[in-house]
Amino acid sequence: MTRRSDVPAPDVPDVPDELSDVIIVGGGASGLSLAQRLVTAESMTVTLVEAPDGPLRAPERTWCYWDADTGELDEALAASWSRLRIHGADGGVITVDPSPLRYRMLRSTDFERWAHSRIAGSPGARIVRATADTVRDTPGGAEVRCTAPDGSSLTLHARHVFDSRPLRALPPARTQLLQHFRGWFVHTDTDRFDPAVADLMDFRVPQPRHGLAFGYVLPLAPDRALVEYTEFSRTPLTRAAYESALGHYSREILKLGAFTVERAEQGVIPMTDARFPRRIGTAVSRIGTAGGATRPATGYTFAAVQRQSRAIAAALRDGRAVAPRPHARRVLAMDAILLRALDTGRIDGPAFFTGLFRHVPPERLLRFLDGRTSPWEEWGIGLRTPVGPMLRTTVELPFLRRRTHPVPHIKESHR
Fold first, then answer.
1. Which residue ranges form the domains of the chain, and what is each CATH number?
2. Cα(9)–Cα(32) distance, rounded to whole angstroms?
3. SS3 of 367, please?
4. Helices in 61-183 by DSSP H: which ranges?
5. Contact 327, 295 (CB under 8 A)
6. Following CA atoms 404, 409, 411, 415 in sequence, which dihedral angle do they give, to the nearest 10 degrees?
7. How many alpha carbons fall within 13 Å on the CB side of residue 17?
8. In this structure, what is the dihedral angle of CA atoms 7, 40, 21, 128, given to the nearest 10 degrees?
9. pLDDT digits (tens, 9 = 90+) for 382-403
10. Residue 100: cis peptide before it, omega within 30 degrees of 0
């Protein structure tokens, strides 16, 4: 059974019908991040609506990000790495030190416990366990209609609502790839890993006919690691195909020897140039992946969620309630070009990413992948890409029609 936070939350809400300043729908990374930031930084009443234990609650998973800061999240961290390694398809190895940045890993249960403890310590905050059914504007604010675990109805009111629930349908897009993966938490019989180095992309795995694939290794100890197989392609694999790919990677490429799989995680993230509306009502905004926080070309979300949470807190303090744009327009434009170039096969994915790590200073490259570089830095990085195919794609994009794509079953990943 998935371990949940030790901080209690009511399973059968006994909640008075009162007006909160803010209701946050969803207790994933984005909902918890915003809730804990509002209750610790702002003097306002906050209600967090979390799904009850059961099928609507996501299984335990991990989130990773890079950051130079230390402090508020340190007690929740599972691990961090000072060096990153890239393996080219030809077997060449690139090891970089992105100092002052470190690659950091959080387990969702640890982050949830940390966030719940901060929320529980605020007299103006409450956590309600219920299934949010509808969110809509009302005069002077918005309401959230919920179903409690006992089947009873519950209606909550607030001046502002921030909804982090996954979308039922993705907006139309010109290009949509999926970043889909399965990972094993392995325990080897002998020491096989260097806990100071994370393998961010290992392109020695067989490449699919369409898209790209890579291995991913996050050491937790000399004999323990998260070992993952990831693809950027149009459709997910079957579980049997993931298991086969992971077995080949672990045994034939990493040569781990005897090992035990302690647990597994699997997910899929949309990589799309769709436009995600953030304001869906006068008093209702979307946050997290539903609000466009996922970086289209990389799938990374957690760091953008933290920036978005800080910006929302600042906006509310200034009397505004619009969820700010998680990524700049020029960043989304660059991602749209890259996604199209990958999808058409105009660029070789493994060679593209390997070349970036080989030629761009690592700290700058990680800020670029996180959407935190200046236009001048981005211009320099762009010159390190295949200029011809990228220009051709740039010219083509305005003439492509946006269309709907099949909706993947999306779970929050370790990105």
1. 19-60+106-170+275-317 (3.50.50.60), 179-267 (3.30.70.2450)
2. 14
3. helix
4. 108-120
5. yes
6. -50
7. 8
8. -10
9. 999 999 999 999 999 999 999 9
10. yes
pTM summary value: 0.90
pLDDT category at 11 given cuts 50, 70, 90 is: very low
Nearest-10 Cα torsion for 345, 351, 357, 359: -110
Q: How far apart are CA 371 and CA 381, in angstroms?
A: 13
Find the helix packing angle between 302-317 and 29-41, rounded to 10°: 40
Q: In angstroms, rounded to a whole number, what is the distance separating the alpha carbons of residues 298 and 294?
A: 8
State whether residue 56 is helix, strand or coil. Answer: coil
Is 352 in a helix, a strand, or coil?
helix
Q: Is beta strand 153-163 parallel, antiparallel or unpaired with respect to 259-272?
A: unpaired
Contacts of 152 (CB under 8 A, 6+ apart): 12
Residue 42 banded pLDDT, cuts 50, 70, 90: low
CA angle 114, 116, 118 (to 5 degrees): 75
Phi, psi (5° rounding) for residue 82? -90, -15
Q: How many CB atoms lie within 10 A of CB 60?
A: 14
CA distances from 365 to 84, 94, 362 (A): 12, 14, 5
Sheet containing 77-81: which strands, arranged edge to edge? 62-67, 102-107, 77-81
How high is the pLDDT of residue 16?
56
Backbone angles phi, psi at 232, to 5 degrees: -105, 110
